[in-house]
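Most newcomers find our protein records easier to grasp once they have seen one. Read left to right, the backbone structure tokens trace the chain's path through space. Once this layout is familiar, the rest of the handout is easier to follow. The record below serves as our worked example for the rest of this section:


***
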Amino acid sequence: MKAALKNIQRNSWKFVADAVAVALAGFAVYVAGQGIFDTIIVYGTTVSLAVAHSFFAPPNLDSRWAAVHKFAHPALGLLFLWLIWRWMGIMLEQEEFFISISEFDFALAWVAFAVIGYLTWRQFGLPMLAVYATAIGYAVLPSGFGGAGLDWSSIADRQWFTTDGVFGRPVQVVTTVVLVFVVFGAVMQHSGAGAVLLKMAFAATGRVAGGPAHAAIVASAMFGTMSGSAIANVVSTGVFTIPIIKKAGFKPRFAGAVEATASTGGQIMPPVMGVVAFIMADVTAIPYLLIILAALLPALFYYFSLFTVVLVEARKQGIGAVPPELRQTLEASDWIKSLAFWIPLAIIVLVLATGRTAQNAGFFALISSFAINLVLFPEFRKPRLWLKSLVTAGRTAASLMVVVASVGIVIGLVNMSGIGLAFADAIREMSGQSLFLALVLVMLGCLVMGMGVPSVTAYLLLALVMGPVLENLGISKISAHLFMLYFGVLSVVTPPVALAAFAAAPIANAGPMETALVGVRLAFTGFAIPFFFVYRPEILLIDGFEPVELVWSIICLAVGSWGATTGLARYEFSRLSLPASGVRLIAALAVLTPETWSSIAGALVIAAAFATEAMRSRKR
């Protein structure tokens, strides 16, 4: 009887949460199609639906906090809805009259800040809460104690009763641009198009040693570029790819790390780049087509390095290609069904090429995807799958809106307090005249600030805090913003947080931290590529590069990647000794430096080591 009652309670909560999720996803599609009809109503409605979903999500009724959850969460949800309603009234009144906001309303704003902080902690853990709390703490701390000493009422006024804080740029951009792509991704996930893409990835890589792991890389690159979250990509594709990678003979921690790093790379893969490409175009005023052109070669090198690591590991473990009788074979129908992925992608690029907004591109891609999937996948003609797509999209959108609301407060407080300028001065002082040291400090800052945050919000946060630092160092705007994006994205595979690796570890039945450490090894080239943006900007293809310099940069990146991969794996044609591995790693670092003589010397060492190992292998 008790179990039946718990089931009824769970189902009731689930029904309410799913209804709110559908409403949020539907509203996002409506806004993408119709445009912003009223900024206050649109942003207020989106945030309120996201928070409502977060509070009405089914509780864990077996937890010792179940009773608190059952009663406190609905109360907090209703309280926040009332706060939003009051905010809308005041904001709409301000559009017509000059009004004085009472101290009571300022106090209510701080209640809203507390609710947002609580949800940020519940959904994204301590790292993001630490960033949120640090920004608020610095703002209110008296200047005599090292803080900004801002008045509590002025903080409430700027961060709640304007479109600068909670309802600032992050909420605005995600509401108008990102959420429609979240719905688009959910439609692709539930229509059956994903299964076809996975089949194509396995067919393309079946003849290569370690084929299943290569297939996971290809599939995750295709899925990841449409997704704004590496973690969501790990969970959705990893349940299929990780068991197959393990079955091929790879160790569990390696299987989990492959999926985590491949899913992470989707956030930097054009043409969508996990929706960050559109955000970057908006923030930097650089045309979208130039951004995806600049991001293309670095993203391809990132995945080239992953293929290399898998190939070396497959040889090391004695794993060959998939047997011919077990390889996937593609039929004509598979190629036709793959149009459900390629046509919407082409529509996105074409719409943006005509000068239309990213919002229009997302809406047309969603409509075309839905129509094509109805034709190509009969199973998708069932309305329950449409509803399931909206529920999935609404859940993701709710989580995303909560974190961008908290990021909006952080960005607003950075603007108010001037901490961004102080941070830039601190980096300049610590690095002295060394550009490299300054870049390393910025890299560490990006890795820390990006931990536990979706790529869209990580980029928005970093663009404000770190962007001026890099641009003041004399780095071009596109190089600076791609530098920040890469390290913000790579934070999800970097210990100690490494959420993408931690999401992959349970699926692989491996330890989270050991999976994260293997993930860092796999993503080594990804950590080196952003420095190429600065020292060898020709790799971006758009800053008036010389063809000879571009070819030399490509050679350096390829040779350095191979040296680092074999050195870290301690294997090439056979197992390498510790000194031999050390020599390769030092040579790889030399190749990746901006000095020509150092790159040539490192490349010669790696080439000589390769030739020596090849001859030894031939003799054996």
Notes: The CA atoms of residues 51 and 340 lie 33 Å apart. The first helix runs from residue 2 to 34. The chain has a mean pLDDT of 83. The two ends are 71 Å apart (CA to CA).
